[in-house]
Amino acid sequence: MTGKKKSAQASVEAMYRVFTVPEAPESTLSRIDQNISRNLAGFLQEHIVAVERDLSDVEKDFSDYAIPEKPIFVSEQAQFLLDKLVANSVHTASPSFIGHMTSALPYFMLPLSKIMIALNQNLVKTETSKAFTPMERQVLGMIHRLVYEQDGAFYRKWMHDPRYALGAMCSGGTVANLTALWVARNNAFPAEGSFRGIHQEGLFRALRYYGCEGAAILVSRRGHYSLRKAADVLGLGRDFLVPVDTDDDNRINTDALREKCLELHRQKIRVMAICGIAGTTETGNVDPLDAMADIAREFGAHFHVDAAWGGPTLFSRTHRHLMRGIEKADSVTFDAHKQLYVPMGAGLVVFRDPGLASAVEHHAQYIIRKGSRDLGSTTLEGSRPGMSMLIQSGLKILAREGYEILIDQGIDKARTFAEMINAETDFELITKPELNILTYRYCPEKVQQALSVADPLQAERLNTSLNRITKFLQKTQRERGKAFVSRTRLEPSRYFSFPCIVFRVVLANPLTTKEILADILKEQRELSADEGIQDEMEILDQMADAVLKLHETGAQQA
């Protein structure tokens, strides 16, 4: 025996085999498949390395830039992925991973995803999707009914009518928002007289024909960055994504919104769309959608609601009132890979009026002919996978009652965690949860007392120090790998709108317990004693003493 490593060979027979012959049961890939199928949580726990590895070090495993000339065996690649990719992935399903909007998935999603991948349907056209096309229309109809609550006759008439679309399936909320605003733009500058419509003649001629100096989209300062992308892609310019001030609860100020609309009207800038947010990314707050709908109607603007996060709250009989006014929206975005618990890469937008999407209809003789049932005629993306299969499976297996439990638990858990934070003298709740997102920070009791009496300059110095501490605690906790909270920057009015770095927590994972939340706070408190941050902690303590002493002296003199 030479011990020489056996190498794979490229040949017609080998190419045929990789398309038709499964891996042997004892192969690396088969063992991985079996382990995942038997115990997904155990597989992830065993193979994902908890301790943070520097990304520049990980990059070394992916530094080859030349496509290999010779093939390797499937098992060799499977082992590479296990050692280099899986091991250095993020354990998003962990119940202590509460920093982002990615959660554990229902177990049935895994085998059903295999069916979807094996079928490899392309939803651009019925010739490459067949039954997936009516299924996608059904899913859009189900979500449409969740939002707009039309009667059965409405859906019998419109859901499968090939000339109309109740919505569009997308790869996520970014494309869903873009699709909604694409529809809004085209409907804001329709064909009229000698003008053939913005879709045909472009934005410059549209503005000239309608006597406008520009077109704007209005949204609160908490709007998702995808809306800026949309303003860019649609040719409006990022400056015409107009931010509107929010109140102390991070909801859009409707008086400021109406005043901004009037200001734009005076400048001959058309208010093309007004966007409400049902679950802001940073704080989980919901805009006053009812009042916004009235303002949109007053100015003839398309009213879009970005409910990528909060939309499934409609399943809850207890909390659906928080979404009041969403049924008045012209379009609504959902992210199925968030609180519908579907694998990454599934979003959608629904339209109140089945005829709205015709404003972006496209046809091609070879694929999406006029009058066909092809869904690609009104979607921005062409080739798309059959993700509707997984959404429909979730809607049927979990059903309204199941989603209601998940939503209610998430909101209750966020409120419980807020109570736990308030009960801790050295932690400060920054934004209380309206849905299931909250923000807080480590802030010693003495510092909280100092901040309560500090003037703007004193508060700025204290908060600058706290920002450095918060950043250190979040980064160190992440690197240790036991738990993860994200961080963001807010401008609390109680601190004179100074930018404060805070911990951000998303409580959507049904496996997260009160005990896990208590452990997260405990670890953060312990990290505050880490030698790496002690100099900053001493500076903060001295500043707090100085502020309190000054205040005490001033009070005695008064």
UniProtKB/TrEMBL annotation:
Family: Belongs to the group II decarboxylase family.
Name of the gene: panP
UniProt keyword terms in alphabetical order: Decarboxylase, Lyase, Pyridoxal phosphate
Gene3D superfamilies named in the record: Aspartate Aminotransferase, domain 1, Type I PLP-dependent aspartate aminotransferase-like (Major domain)
Listed Pfam families: Pyridoxal_deC
Cofactor(s) demanded: pyridoxal 5'-phosphate
Cited InterPro entries: Asp_decarboxylase_pyridox, PyrdxlP-dep_de-COase, PyrdxlP-dep_Trfase, PyrdxlP-dep_Trfase_major, PyrdxlP-dep_Trfase_small
Domain of life: Bacteria
Descriptive protein name: Pyridoxal-dependent aspartate 1-decarboxylase
Species this chain originates from: Marinobacter iranensis
Transmembrane segments: none
